[in-house]
Amino acid sequence: MDSPFTHHFNTNYVPSDNEIPAIRDAIYKGKEVLNDIDQKTHEIERRMEELRQELQALAECREAQKREVDELMALLSPIKRIDDDILTSIFLSVLDVVNRDHLNISKKHPAVVISHVCQRCANQLSPPNSSGVICTFGFLPILTIRVLRISGGQR
Question: Which spans of this chain does the record mark as coiled coil (predicted)?
Fold first, then answer.
């Protein structure tokens, strides 16, 4: 705002009666400019909020799409194609012979690690009361290992 009175700012200048209407006019014009700036600022803030909401919607859409792609990729996981008999054989091959005097197996034991590969691997550890070999993992309750009979694949 260029006013003919800027050189009087921060001084003890007292305007004359003839200058007062010009100062009031400059104040009025300055307030109009402030109102325009406020309106533009409000409009930009409104558009920014719309963009934030659009960005949030896109982020949610992307996350849902990513979950679907991840689930589709999981369907192609090679472990899903392994027969239960082979899975059990792999599981049992890494399981040490369980001795009644030494039933604890650490969290890093290969049988425990393999049981975290997929749900089917974890299912090789069945709940109590089913047939199999009983063992404990120190940090888990007593679990039963399902043993598939290779002849016929029954549990």
Answer: 34-68
In tens, the pLDDT along 61-108 reads 999 999 999 999 988 988 778 887 887 777 777 665 444 445 566 677
Reading the block at residue 147, the tokens are 């043993």
Q: Are 92 and 110 in contact (CB under 8 A)?
A: no
Q: Where on the phi/psi map is residue 148: left (φ > 0), alpha (ψ -120 to 50), or beta? A: beta
Q: Using CB atoms within 10 A of its CB, is residue 145 exposed (0-12), middle (13-18) or buried (19+)?
A: buried
Whole-number Å distance between alpha carbons of 5 and 12: 12
- Residue 43 tokens read as 């409009």
Average pLDDT of the chain, as a whole number: 75
Cβ atoms of 122 and 116 within 8 Å: the answer is: yes
- DSSP for 40-85 reads HHHHHHHHHHHHHHHHHHHHHHHHHHHHHHHHHHHHT-GGGGS-HH
Q: Three-state DSSP class for 128?
A: coil
What's the chain's length in residues? 155
Its pTM surpasses 0.85: no
